[in-house]
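Researcher: Next entry in the queue.
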Amino acid sequence: MRPRWQAGPSTLVLVRHGESLGNQAAAAARASGAEALELRERDADVPLSETGRHQARALGAWLAETGGSDTGGPTVAVASPYRRASDTARLALEGLEVPLEHDERLRERDLGVLDRLTGTGVRARHPQEAERRQHLGKFYYQPPSGESWADVALRVRSLLHDLAEYDGERVWLFTHQAVIMSFRLVLEGLDETRLLELDRQVRIPNASVTTYHRTGHHLGHHLELASFADAAAVDRSSAHVTREAPATARSADAH
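Model: Structure for this entry, 255 residues:
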């Protein structure tokens, strides 16, 4: 059932973090056929790349110039505590009088024992897990000591319940690809098949925005999708638009 919003944000904007060193390491590992990413930091500490910092600043320049287009800019900002998302928020909000909060429910999906492995690495080092994932499907598969996409959706449902207190506010959330897709699942009442189809079709660009507006009709109040994976702020700048490779070529998941 889709959440109804008799009270809550008037606008909800989901921002994917700028390109990270993890994104770069994943691309390099895919290109070389490596089993694992060359990355020393734990996932929570992976920083933005130079391109990622440029993308975050481009988003900030767009906000300063346009006020966030039809969104009017944020009145509330909440970020994943993971460094790449938190730094994206800090750079994008620089100069704006918007306090930044953090919420662990916006963190990236935990890949457990498969963290830092490419698809090649999972098949080579954990063949039984590769078979189990193939059998269960991406949405319900839970890596050992990690999370499934269904687990992430539970986090999103919990956070949305708490966001109801921000009545009439323009809430911006700085987060990660799997979390943004889980918001689409929950807010639009998507099923597993439609969600995974979207994930195959659309690679959410770094520092892109996905926007919902609250609307009322005879079935109640909902947050309705206005734009998805919009990279216009980065595209209009000198920063490069970056995104993950198609799902068939990606590592265990996005970083």
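Model: The chain is about 40% helix and 15% strand.
Researcher: Noted, moving on.
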